[in-house]
Amino acid sequence: MSTAIKFGTSGWRAIVADEFTVANIRLAVAGIAAYVKTQPEPHRVLVGRDPRFLGESFVAEAARVLAGAGITPIVIPEAAPTPAIAYAVRTLKTSGAINFTASHNPPEYNGIKFSTHDGAPALPEVTKQIEAAIGKMTVDGGKVGEHVPSLNAPPDGFETTDVKPAFLKRLEELVDLKAIAKSGIKVVYDPFWGAGRGYSSDLLREAGVAVETVHDYRDVLFGGHAPEPDDHLLGDCKAKMREIGAALGIATDGDADRFGIVDGDGTFIQPNYIVSLLFDYLVETRVHWRADHRGQDRHRRGRVGWPHHSRPRAGEGRRDRRPAGGRDGGHARQEPGRAAAGAVCQGWFLLSGSGELPLDPGGEGRVH
After folding, report:
1. What is the mean pLDDT of each run of 10 residues along the chain (368 residues)?
2. Which positions ≥6 away from 23 have C-beta within 8 Å?
3. Distance between CA atoms of 38 and 130, rounded to whole angstroms?
4. Residue ranges of domains in the chain
5. Closest CA relative to residue 302, chosen from 265, 336, 353, 368
6. What does the DSSP assignment read for 277-295?
7. Which residues contact 41 (CB under 8 A, 6 or more apart)?
8. Is the peptide bond before 42 cis (omega within 30 degrees of 0)?
9. SS3 call for 68
10. Nearest to 157 by CA among 67, 42, 78
11. What is the pLDDT, as a whole number, of residue 340?
12. CA-to-CA distance for 33 and 66, rounded, in angstroms?
């Protein structure tokens, strides 16, 4: 017996072996496949995951269902952050991405986030189509229908891709890492055993920034609690900061699309404050009026992966987007911990979800 699958703003989530079963995964992916088939060819979909229990098996099952529907699955073998997967959708020009993650929810949960061809979370008009397709595949009060497609992998396996190199390369272009390294700041990064492992820490280390990590290994139980970068769960991060004299602690959730910041004195800074600073910075430096070739003014806007706010309004072109982010300004300019937090987090936001804001002409406007 299957349970009704409903997609919210961050996809579908449920408890593993309760509602999140292989049968329901097949239905959900088949519904996504039906939607993708209505979109322009070629039909290619990325399939990724965070480090949760059975993630590899769920990815393999999704790839088989996509292949059975005539869609080319591109498997991401290692756990990857949601922003990195979203960026890969755009750079690889795929039809979208299926990401197995329950984000910051407790370890007994898993879920599916579906991103459309622009890398952004699927909007209600899309998820309604997916749910309708799922409904057509269920009969007799919820029993799984007989026609969910599935094909075994070819002898050499499904196509794979590594989303990490291109994502980190773009971050290097957006953030002035040399200036951060020159400051001499020490940083502690806590990935909460999640998909962010090896991303922020590697980026900073390769730039010459002194970085230490905690919870930097796979634990499908996330230490026995939700992988949520909230103040009451950052004790180990704060302890490591005291140990090495770090001015900044950065933590990310299970799929690394949420963050938390700890100042050098151990103060937890609410993410909304950092976002506000980044937004202010972006308004000052990245959003500007310029004349196009017809002499008409236009407002160049970029966007990041916020579930609905970054989408174009009715009648708007795809380039006319609403920005979100912030800046390392005001008091943050006086405090290297918060300034570095703004710089690194801005890069994540610029590449998060469906896209990024354009760099200023001549490469100006990098943050440090």
Report:
1. 76 95 95 97 98 98 96 98 96 98 97 96 95 83 65 90 97 91 96 96 96 98 97 98 97 95 95 85 61 40 37 38 32 41 53 40 42
2. 2, 144
3. 11
4. 12-162, 165-363
5. 353
6. HHHHHHHHHT-EEEE-TTS
7. none
8. yes
9. helix
10. 67
11. 52
12. 6
Q: Is the dihedral of CA 288, 289, 294, 295 positive or negative?
A: negative
Query: Could you tell me the sign of the dihedral formed by the alpha carbons of 309, 310, 311, 316, in that order?
Result: positive
How distant is the alpha carbon of residue 341 from its chain centre? 18
**CA 91: distance to chain centroid?**
15
Site of tokens 């017996």: 1
Helix (DSSP H) and strand (DSSP E) numbers for the chain: 10, 15
- Cα–Cα distance, 20 to 22 (Å, whole number): 7
Tell me yes or no: is domain 12-162 CATH 3.40.50.300.
no
* CATH number of this structure's domain 165-363, picked from the four choices 3.40.120.10, 3.10.290.10, 3.40.50.620, 3.40.50.1000: 3.40.120.10
Q: Which tokens is 241 given?
A: 């900061």
Distance CA 13, CA 105 (A): 9
**Cross-strand partners of 8:** 11
Question: Which amino acid type is present at position 278?
Answer: L
What is the pTM for the complete model shown? 0.81
Cβ 326 vs Cβ 278: under 8 Å: yes
Q: Say which residues have a Cβ less than 8 Å from residue 78's Cβ, sequence separation at least 6.
A: 162, 164
- Find tokens 């229990």 and name the residue: 53
The one-letter code for the residue type at 245 is G
Sole residue written with tokens 């703003």: 9
